[in-house]
Structure formats: C-alpha cells, structure tokens
Write a structure and sequence with these properties.
The chain is an alpha/beta fold. It is 32% helix and 18% strand. Helix 1 crosses helix 2 and helix 4 packs across helix 6. It starts with a strand and ends in a 9-residue tail after the last strand.
Length: 234
Amino acid sequence: MSRLIAILIRHGDYHQLSNTPSALQPFGLNGNGRSQSAKAIELLKQMQASSNAIFHPVIDSSTLLRSWQTADIIVHGLNAIDNIEVFDALTERGLGSVANLTIEQIENAIEQDPRFDSPPKDWKSNSYYCLPYQGAESLIDAGKRVADHLLKRMSAIDARILTSSEQDTFKIFVGHGAAFRHAAYHLGVMKFEEIAKLSMYYAQPLALEMHKDGSFSHAAGEWKIRPDVDSQLD
C-alpha cells in the first residue's frame, strides 16, 4: 500500500542580525547554508531509494529568501521536481511591528509603553506568549498556521497518484524550525513538553506520514536535541 509522506526541511544556515529574533529577517543563505542544502539532495535521494518513493513535482516553501534558496538548490538537484510555490503560511512566527529589532530594543519598547506589562523572561521560547504589537503572533499560533497548510496541501494531492502506484509519494515543504516543531505538536506528532527540547537540523529532511484519517506520524529523520531551551531563534 502506497504512503503519502510530508518531508519537512528547515532552511540552511543564513546571514542574520546578531541578538535579533530571526523570524522574518530577509537575508539569504551563507556558504555553509548552501553546502547544507546541497547535501540535502543526497539525503533525499537516499530516503527515496529506501522507500521506493516518487517526489511530488512541487516544493512548498516559505516566502523568506533563505527557505526559497534552500528549495531552489534542491529543485536543481532532483530532476523529478519541476517547481517551487511560496506561501506566507510557512513562515516563522511573526513579530508584527517590532520584527527584526534586537531583543533589547523589543524589551525596551515594551518597558517604555505604559499600556503593556513586562514580558516574561522566557518570552522568546514561550509557546503561548504573543508580543503586544500589531501583527504579532505566538509560536503556538504560528504552528497552527503551518499545520493547517500541511494538512490542506497534503489532502489536495490527487488520490489517483496513490491508488495507481505502489510507490510512496514524497511532498517537500521547506520552512522554519520553530514553526515546524509547533506544527508537529498540532498534528499529534510531538508532545507539548518536547517542543522546547527539540529542534531541527539545517537542511536535513524529516518525514511525517499522513494517514487516511488525516492523522500524522513520524516516519523518518531525526529531531535535533536543543542545548539551550531558553532560546527560540529560528
């Protein structure tokens, strides 16, 4: 029986501002990130061979440059993939009007505004905390947004692909670590207490199988153990 597999790939390492929540930083991959993305091609080929799988011809990517570049490198290394489609729904947690300010600048702005309470010390990693600014969202809300996108896009794959082939189908999604982890929680693949303990390796595929009832389970690939659970930078 063929299986439908979502392949989650965190973008490669990239240029980023120091001491700044990375959420919506617009910068591209650095040299290391490009190498990581190139290595992802071989990992995907190995995963494909071990599962006798075919790749869905479209990669879904976050709109952010580092994700698109990662996806673009993969597309050029996998002949079976034709195109990249980009989606806001796959971006990291949005920080609203304080996006791309430093941590110190954000905390100072909150402290100077009499309308707001001081943020908790763990505000960067607190799954439910949302900065009090227009357009900001919590990590748990960002994860729900990503989970909804995964479910929608996976469910839309033509059922004839699965019934007419004995091969598994891989659908690749390139996005961001924290949003993917929180999405995994919403999809029932990760326990809530595991979110802060785990991360994702740069540009290494992690596979989730989607079952007929719409549920997901971990199929392949390894989560990364987080050495610093108080940090929530992408």
